[in-house]
Amino acid sequence: MKKVLLASILGAFSISAAQAAPVKLTHLCATPDGATGVSAAYLAEVAAKYKVATIQTSCGKTLTKTMQQVAEGKADISASPFILNFLMARGLGPYAGLGKKKGAELASNLRVLYSYDIATFYLVAFASKGIDSWDKLKGKTIFNGPPRGGATTTAKAIIRIVTGMKEGDGYTAKHVSWPQANSIFLDGGVAAAVRPGNNPPTWIPIYEAAGQINIVSVPKAIWEGKGFQKLANGPGAVPIKYTIKDLNWGKTKVISEDGYYRSLAQQSGDVVNKSMSKALAKKLTAAFIKDLDELKKKTPWAPGALYGNTDAKRMGFCGPVGVKFHPGAIEAWEEAGRKIADCAKP
């Protein structure tokens, strides 16, 4: 009888301990000081604060790979540019090796907790390089992203539409991982970069410490043209237009014909596998929502990143990108008084 009682007590203790054990998760992101890194650090902070989970963040990653890891159940959370959801679902671009069927299967495993603008795209160069227009990229070596990834795909497309040039046919590109991106620019390994950044870009102070820099707007006529608007209104993107006098970009010279900076921004979200429990997804999202005002104070550019924006049109949930929110996240947002569009519900 005593043995049975002892076994029952130990069994009950084991169940209680298991229930009390903190959930441990991994969160993979791109640059640590960019939108994905700040989002990951913030989620880890609030998840610990509200005793939801212990999250180990790891940045400097290529998101094409980390998204696939989450889709395959090999990682818990990843930043996810929505253009990559689109490409994965169709087995295109960096996911061509998966094929259409496998790509669609993996993409269907991804579920969004919350969304944000991952970056705006910029042509940046030291003034000493003499690059004050997009046409002057001709014959130059530039950085336009890692060897693979959504940022690289978009940068190539922007250059092609604005200049008519393709990589290897008009300009040469060097591809390095994000942790090396600033170094290759600063050491003169490239003449310019076409790359994503926040508003204001976090890399501006680093570059300005080495010399005067130019950031070049997409010309008005091209920005308004059919080709660029198709790209800028395509999956995971939106056209942007900033008044230059209102930009807080330090000593940087912004080159434009009419006082506006024009480009495109890409939307993103942090995603989990659909197998994550509804309760955990809801708790993570509710923690994210609860201190959202604090997140917006963490960097000068955080308010412009639109963390937590749930407007379907602005964030590009619907249409061909086809991203879906986790049911637990939907409950958290709706309890917070936000509507998630039907098109973004699984």
Attribute tags:
disordered N terminus; 346 residues; D-Maltodextrin-Binding Protein, domain 2; alpha/beta; 14 helices; globular; 2 domains
Structure description:
- The protein is α/β, with parallel strands linked by helices.
- It has 2 domains: 23-117 and 268-344, Periplasmic binding protein-like II (D-Maltodextrin-Binding Protein, domain 2), CATH 3.40.190; 119-266, 3-Layer(aba) Sandwich (D-Maltodextrin-Binding Protein, domain 2).
- The protein contains 14 helices and 12 strands.
- Strands 1, 2, 3, 4, 5, 6, 7, 8, 9, 10, 11 and 12 form a 12-stranded mixed sheet that branches.
- Helix 2 crosses helix 11, helix 4 packs across helix 5 (99-107) and helix 11 packs parallel to helix 14 (327-335).
- It is globular, with a radius of gyration of 22 Å.
- The termini are far apart.
- Residues 1-21 have low confidence and may be disordered.
Would you kindly provide a brief summary of this structure?
The chain is of the alpha/beta class.
Annotate the secondary structure layout.
Elements: H1 2-20, E1 24-28, H2 35-49, E2 54-58, H3 63-71, E3 77-81, H4 82-90, H5 99-107, E4 110-126, E5 141-143, H6 150-163, E6 166-167, E7 170-174, H7 178-186, E8 192-197, H8 204-208, E9 213-216, H9 220-224, H10 226-232, E10 237-243, E11 253-255, E12 260-273, H11 278-290, H12 292-295, H13 312-315, H14 327-335
Parallel strand pairs: 1-2, 1-3, 5-7, 5-8, 6-7, 9-11
Antiparallel strand pairs: 3-12, 4-8, 4-9, 4-12, 10-12
Helix pairs in contact: 2-11, 4-5, 11-14
